[in-house]
UniProtKB/TrEMBL annotation:
<keyword id="KW-0547">Nucleotide-binding</keyword>
<feature type="domain" description="Histidine kinase/HSP90-like ATPase">
    <location>
        <begin position="11"/>
        <end position="132"/>
    </location>
</feature>
<dbReference type="InterPro" id="IPR036890">
    <property type="entry name" value="HATPase_C_sf"/>
</dbReference>
<protein>
    <submittedName>
        <fullName>ATP-binding protein</fullName>
    </submittedName>
</protein>
<dbReference type="InterPro" id="IPR003594">
    <property type="entry name" value="HATPase_dom"/>
</dbReference>
<keyword id="KW-0723">Serine/threonine-protein kinase</keyword>
<dbReference type="InterPro" id="IPR050267">
    <property type="entry name" value="Anti-sigma-factor_SerPK"/>
</dbReference>
<dbReference type="GO" id="GO:0005524">
    <property type="term" value="F:ATP binding"/>
</dbReference>
<dbReference type="Pfam" id="PF13581">
    <property type="entry name" value="HATPase_c_2"/>
</dbReference>
<keyword id="KW-0418">Kinase</keyword>
<keyword id="KW-0808">Transferase</keyword>
<keyword id="KW-0067">ATP-binding</keyword>
Length: 146
């Protein structure tokens, strides 16, 4: 396998794009050797769903599109990034608000930590941001301790 593999897709900031992003990531990861039925694939799909949902819901119409990027570095690390053009960074919502929503970043952080990964938010030159998740690829069996 190549030292670096990359793929990305730009989608409209519309709720229907969340499932499109999930399907896209599932297809790319299958090409890179991660079967769609693997537990890890389910986790990655959930992370992508939450990141894409945030890009659609929390940019308040100020980001007409969002981009999902994947990077597989030397069979060691999978990076998943979702970029939008809104300058507001993800925030943890107050507990009262979290009754119906607002748990996305908590879920993402927990899943990322369970898999031995890390989360970072990086500003884009255009004034938006990319939320990156880095997960170990090898071995990519399940949460640490499995």
């Amino acid at each position: 396998m190549a030292d670096l593999q990359e793929a990305s897709v730009t989608l409209p900031s519309d709720p229907a794009s969340v499932s499109t992003a999930r399907r896209y990531v599932t297809g790319v990861l299958a090409e890179w050797g991660l079967p769609g039925e693997a537990e890890t694939a389910d986790t990655v799909r959930l992370i992508v769903s939450e990141l894409a949902t945030n890009a659609v819901q929390h940019t308040f119409g100020q980001s007409p599109t969002f981009t999902v990027a994947l990077r597989l570095e030397r069979d060691e690390q999978l990076r998943i990034g979702v970029t939008d053009s809104h300058p507001r960074w993800p925030q943890r919502l107050p507990a009262a608000v979290q009754q119906d929503n607002g748990r996305g970043m908590v879920i993402i952080r927990w899943l990322t930590a369970e898999y031995g990964g890390r989360l970072s938010v990086i500003p884009t030159p255009e004034g938006g941001k990319t939320v990156w998740i880095a997960l170990p690829w090898t071995p990519f069996q399940g949460p640490s301790g499995d």
